[in-house]
């Protein structure tokens, strides 16, 4: 492989892996990968990420450097989408938001709620899609070519309504032309729904031979943290109407809750130290039985106290410019940073790979020297593996046609080289 170097600096350990002369870039220079271990990661102990160089400008939203992970809002609207056909065909033209939404480039034009996490890594970008609703094809047609997105490395499902799973059949374009299959991460209760709504994708025995249906790998998740392509994802259980459970997800310091009518008390600790909160906000005046309205969503922001909030899931009563103008005043009066998101918005985020050491650590229950020692141990595990140790077993294993967590998997030894 080559040489490995470990440097300790402050609260971090920097590991540089120098590849042998057999591996060179287009400038005939030896390749290297740099990993940075930190002990100040929220919801966990030592973690690492691959470092890189370079920068690029975003055409929408914040500045996004070329080596930085980002969240792309694939859709920010309700199940029926905006504009509504009924509003556009109404001879009285009483809906100003839908009238604006039909104009090219309008931020009032919204398709089914979904985000894509594009994580940078040495071997190339990793694209994790949250939800694949019934308008997914139209969203992908708009944003995938624009932002250079080709592969879908995983789909993570929040719940089993049509605006979250209705586009699963459209994944056939990827599995027939881009990649062999698409992993789906879904709770067991929602998988049971998929067995009925998309039975031919779950049980291929009913498919006519030669039919080009989506090739999907179903991975059953619980309400416990799980790993997807070295990224730790923490489920955020919420209620999406009386008795109906939906999941939000935490990625590093970003929390995503797209469909919620209530947040259980046991979920709030998982939202601690949230830097970016993406939260459901259906309408400007009140909540519905299944979704937060803007007043309730703002109350949740005041309780959770994120550094920044972007609302999603807006219906046609939420005028992007009008509502955002009002929300700007809250930064002056209350010091809270809240805005409506929009389809195509790009936001840079910091995504650390999952903990190399399984125990959860924090400055509250471990002294600084202990954190540094455990970080050093994690770094040595990484160095040992890179320099020729046996590769860990796969994260998942197939059982009865379903991909389940592999009990032999050692999650703290996975490294993306």
Tell me what you see in this structure.
The protein is an alpha/beta fold. The protein folds into two domains: 93 residues, no CATH class; 273 residues, 4-Layer Sandwich (Metallo-beta-lactamase, Chain A). It is 21% helix and 26% strand. A seven-stranded mixed beta sheet has the order 10-9-8-7-6-5-18. Helix 9 links the parallel strand 16 and strand 17. The longest helix is centred in the last third of the chain and has 19 residues. It is globular. The chain starts with a strand and ends in a 12-residue tail after the last strand. The N terminus and C terminus are likely disordered. This is Metallo-beta-lactamase domain-containing protein. InterPro entries: Metallo-B-lactamas (IPR001279), RibonucZ/Hydroxyglut_hydro (IPR036866). It comes from Capsicum baccatum (Peruvian pepper).
- Number of helical segments? 10
Q: CATH H-level name of the largest domain... which superfamily?
A: Ribonuclease Z/Hydroxyacylglutathione hydrolase-like
Overall pLDDT: 81
Helix/sheet category:
alpha/beta
- C-alpha Rg (nearest Å): 22 Å
Report the major sheet. Answer: 7 strands, mixed
Taken together, the total number of domains comes to: 2
The percentage helix is 10-25%
Protein name: Metallo-beta-lactamase domain-containing protein
Organism: Capsicum baccatum
InterPro entries: Metallo-B-lactamas, RibonucZ/Hydroxyglut_hydro
Pfam families: Lactamase_B_2
